[in-house]
Amino acid sequence: MMMTYYKYLWLLILVVACQQSPSKTEINKETAYFNWAGATVYFLLTDRFNNGDPDNDVQFERTQETAVLRGFEGGDIAGVTQKINEGYFDNLGVNALWLTPLVEQIHEGTDEGTGYTYGYHGYWAKDWTALDPNFGTEQELKAMVEAAHSRGIRVLFDAVVNHHGPETPLDGIWPEDWVRRGPTCSFDSYAGTTACNLVANLPDVLTESNDAVGLPPQLEAK
Question: How far apart, in whole angstroms, are the C-alpha atoms of residue 118 and residue 132?
């Protein structure tokens, strides 16, 4: 009788334990430890990584012939999501993604000495408040972040706030209470390194100014 009692007791414990034990996925989500000091970060140039949606490859009539590899090649947010869902980053042991800027770039291109170039790299911002459609939509961005988070992958977005994109006949330049129009940095003094444009035709934002400014005409028009 006593042996039968213990047999049923162990069986009851086993059943309850099986019912209450979280799945492996739940354990990973709840107890996974993340430390930026030990993170494995994968940096990717969004336009050059993976083309998930060929329909967005040409935007703002960016069709002029460029120098070799100086135009948009089709990589986008959808392409990053595709690789996340395929387990590409999991297989590499990556737990953080660092993406180049996704904000709207100047619509026209320019030649800074390397031939005619578009802002495929993301560092020639025209509008910091909008995504560039060459990279994708807000919905695609949300889906990408959620896909990454579901696998325990953090997402970093590169941000360039010290200059906007080069002036072009189509894109213009922001007002003087926003940016300086020169000189080009000489790097031979503090002022020659900070109060200047990194290169010619790359308007430097007056980040040292505390004066109130209005929206530039480019954004008011939108």
Answer: 12
Place of tokens 């135009």: 71
> Which residues pair with residue 193 across a beta bridge?
none
Q: How far apart are CA 193 and CA 171, in angstroms?
A: 26
Q: Is the pLDDT of residue 29 over 70?
A: no
Residue spans per domain, the chain: 38-161, 173-208
DSSP for 58-93, please give it: --TT--S--STT-S-----HHHHHHHHHHTHHHHHT
Which tens digits make up the pLDDT trace of 83-100? 999 999 999 999 999 999
Handedness of CA 136, 141, 142, 145 (dihedral sign): positive
Which residues make Cβ contacts (< 8 Å) with residue 71, sequence separation at least 6?
A: 62, 109, 117, 118, 120
| Residues contacting residue 145 through CB under 8 Å, at least 6 positions apart | 155
With contact defined as beta carbons under 8 Å apart, do 65 and 11 qualify? no
Does the pTM surpass 0.85? The reply is no
**CATH domain 38-161 topology:** TIM Barrel (3.20.20)
